[in-house]
Design brief:
With 207 residues, this protein is of the alpha+beta class. Helix content is 16%, strand content 34%. It is elongated, with a radius of gyration of 20 Å.
C-alpha cells in the first residue's frame, strides 16, 4: 500500500473525506478535507480550524513513519472551485454551476451550434433522464439589477450537454462569488513546516 493510500485511510478514519491531495515540486504537501456527504443530514457541517489541526497532527506522525520527504504540510477545506473527483461528488452538488473538461472534444456534428473541438463547458449540473449526467446553460447576457426584458426580446435557447462520468477529464464547482450562496463561507487551513504551525484563511465551498 502506498503512503497516499495510507494517508487517505487515516483521514477517513478520523471521520473526514479526502477531497484532494497535491504535492508540489517545492516540497508543499497540500491536503484538502471535508465532512463526508450525508443527504439525510438536516444541516451541512463545515470544516473548522480544530478539524484541520486534528488532521495535521495525525498526518505529521504518519508522514514521519512513512518517511515521506516534504517541507510543508497544509491541511484545509475546499475552495470555491472545489474539485469533483467522484460520482458521489456529482450527486452532492446537483443544481450547482460547474466547470467540466471532457476527455474528447465535441463539435457541431453532435450539438447544433456548438463550436467544433470544444472541451470545456460551464452550466448547472443535473441528472439526465438516461441515467447519466448533463449540464444546462444559456448564452443569454446577464441582466443588470432591476432591468426588465424588452417586449420584443427573443427567447434565448437553453443548451443541454449530456455526458457520462467516465467521459470527464476534470470537473470543479464554478468559482462564482455569491454572498448568498456557498462562496460566502470562509474555511481555515493549517500549515506546518516541521518547525511551526500557523493558520490562514482560504476560500470555502459551502453547500
Amino acid at each position: 500500500m502506498s503512503w497516499q493510500q495510507t494517508l487517505e485511510q487515516t483521514v477517513t478514519g478520523l471521520g473526514y473525506e479526502l477531497v484532494d491531495l497535491e504535492r508540489s515540486a517545492g516540497g508543499m504537501l497540500r491536503v484538502t478535507i471535508d465532512f463526508p456527504w450525508n443527504p439525510a443530514a438536516p444541516e451541512q457541517r463545515f470544516i473548522t480550524v480544530d478539524d484541520c489541526e486534528r488532521v495535521t497532527r495525525q498526518l505529521q506522525f504518519l508522514l514521519e513513519v512513512e518517511q515521506v520527504d516534504y517541507k510543508r504540510l497544509e491541511v484545509g477545506s475546499p475552495g470555491i472551485d472545489r474539485p469533483l473527483r467522484r460520482e458521489s461528488d456529482f450527486e452532492r452538488f446537483v443544481g450547482e454551476v460547474v466547470d467540466i473538461t471532457l476527455k474528447q472534444p465535441i463539435g457541431d456534428a453532435a450539438t447544433e451550434g456548438m463550436a467544433a473541438n470544444r472541451r470545456k463547458f460551464r452550466g448547472v449540473l443535473e441528472r439526465a433522464e438516461s441515467g447519466g449526467w448533463q449540464i444546462v446553460w444559456s448564452d443569454a447576457p446577464e441582466s443588470k439589477p432591476g432591468q426588465r426584458p424588452g417586449k420584443k426580446a427573443k427567447p434565448v435557447p437553453v443548451n443541454v450537454l449530456g455526458f457520462r462520468f467516465d467521459e470527464i477529464r476534470e470537473a470543479r464547482l464554478a468559482p462564482i462569488v455569491n454572498f448568498k450562496g456557498r462562496s460566502a463561507d470562509v474555511a481555515p487551513a493549517v500549515q506546518d513546516d516541521k518547525t511551526s504551525t500557523k493558520t490562514q484563511q482560504t476560500g470555502k465551498a459551502g453547500e
